[in-house]
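Schema walk-through. Below, the input block comes first and the output block second. Nothing else is stored per chain. Lengths vary across the set, and this one has 70 residues.
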Amino acid sequence: MTQQNDAAFARAAFYHPEAGVSTSKDGLTKREYFAAMAIQGFMVNHTGTIEELVKMSVIAADALIKELNK
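--- output ---
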């Protein structure tokens, strides 16, 4: 199952002698990454305002995450 706030890209675990094994989630979330990819496609056929394209991109990202979790 994918969560919208999971990291978009895998990151290797690192070892810290005092803290043990730890992982980091720096960078884009899956939701942000999916929305970025969607807005690129929407901008090719720019027919609305940037605000409309941004909203459509977030809706598309959320729909993709929902579909992936089926």
